[in-house]
Design a protein that fits this description.
single chain, 372 residues, alpha+beta, four-stranded mixed sheet, three-stranded antiparallel sheet, 9 strands, binds zinc ion
Length: 372
């Protein structure tokens, strides 16, 4: 789940949430829909336009959710993982885990989203045509239109949009290099963003259509920043994915016993070893971790009397990783819980402490030695 989002529910192990910005855009969208509906269907009470607009906005939200679930379910069917979906108003970010190993997997996972939107558009259109009730027709006519736009917009060949992923999978197939394919696809993404930005300026200055100007400007900005960050992220992630926690953690881990005093910990372990944290082990079992910040709570005068067991974070409260976990998972845990280090446990046996510094060094090494 991305930061700044609210969790809604979990389906087949996939956490679904909405980004905070969604709330603002939801209001903006609902308001602009009241204006559109007022033009299309006259003589309703003012409140009715608002009710219809809220229903239409919510159904748009459901459409976007179904589109993202299609990506996630296809990923699961193809043997990839799907961890979470964060919804924005026009789309979502599906956090899929495990990289597509073949271009064809990436192709089907990407293309299923727009296809789903086009199917939703067709179904909505059918409802709009068949319904006798003009208000139902109004809402479903709008849904047909917006799903068509969603499917079409997502097919724009700019990474990280679905169309960009489709393009990337094709370039990947041709060039044989996923990294080069990502760079080309992101370049096209930035070009599309500049095009949309020019369109936004045109709406503002020539057409005096402020609302369209705002929409196109926002989409251009979103696409540009996404395209720029996706190359770096892609490169980083593909490096991390090849690495397991066991490859990075130093196995020669020394530990202290729970009875060790804080003063001993500082003088015998932290300072001589240049460490900020030590695992605490009793009977070959990890019982906790003690860090510099735990120690700073003990006044210097009492450090010779206080045992490590009294200030450490105990085993129950610790988040740990297995040595065979991908390093990417460890990095996510470090970031998500704002940790400086993670104990690496093989069953209950301590393999070592994985620190942020270890991860950074490993990444810099791989950066320096990388050929692709
Ligand atoms: Zn999509």
């Amino acid at each position: 789940m991305l930061r700044n989002s609210i969790k809604l529910f979990t389906i087949r192990g996939i956490e679904v949430g909405v980004h905070y910005s969604w709330l603002v855009i939801f209001l903006l969208l609902t308001w602009s829909l009241t204006l559109v509906f007022r033009e299309t269907l006259r003589h309703l009470a003012p409140l009715e336009y608002w009710v219809l607009a809220v229903i239409a906005s919510l159904l748009l939200f459901v459409s976007v959710l179904i589109h993202e679930l299609a990506h996630s379910f296809m990923a699961l069917a193809r043997g990839l993982g799907a961890r979470s979906i964060t919804l924005f108003i026009f789309g979502g970010v599906s956090n899929l885990t495990g990289e597509a190993k073949q271009p064809s997997t990436e192709f089907v996972v990407a293309i299923v989203g727009p296809i789903t939107s086009f199917v939703l558009a067709a179904l909505s259109y059918a409802v709009a045509v068949v319904a006798d009730e003009p208000r139902v027709s109004l809402i479903f006519g709008y849904l047909a239109f917006i799903n068509l736009v969603l499917g079409g917009f997502n097919l724009v060949p700019g990474f990280p949009l679905d169309g960009g992923r489709v393009l990337r999978s094709i370039l990947w197939q041709i060039t044989g290099s996923m990294r080069r394919a990502t760079e080309y696809a992101a370049f096209v993404g930035r070009l599309v963003a500049y095009g949309l930005f020019a369109l936004a300026v045109w709406f503002f200055l020539v057409d005096s259509n402020i609302i369209s100007g705002i929409w196109f400007g926002a989409i251009a900005w979103f696409l540009h920043s996404a395209a720029s960050s996706s190359v770096q992220q892609q490169v980083l992630e593909s490096r991390l994915r090849q690495v397991r926690v066991a490859d990075v953690v130093r196995g020669d881990e020394q530990a202290v016993s729970p009875q060790t005093t804080v003063a001993e910990l500082i003088d015998d372990y932290l300072l001589p070893r240049n460490r900020r944290a030590m695992p605490v082990v009793a009977n070959d079992q990890l019982v906790g971790i003690v860090t510099v910040s735990d120690i700073t709570r003990v006044p210097p005068a009492e450090r010779a009397r206080v045992a490590v067991a009294q200030v450490m974070s105990s085993r129950d409260s610790l988040i740990s990783v297995r040595p065979d976990a991908p390093l990417r998972d460890a990095v996510e845990l470090l970031a998500e819980h704002d940790l400086e280090q993670l104990p690496v446990l093989d069953g209950s046996r301590l393999v070592g402490l994985l620190t942020r510094a270890d991860v950074m060094r490993q990444l810099q090494l791989r950066e320096a030695l990388a050929s692709d």
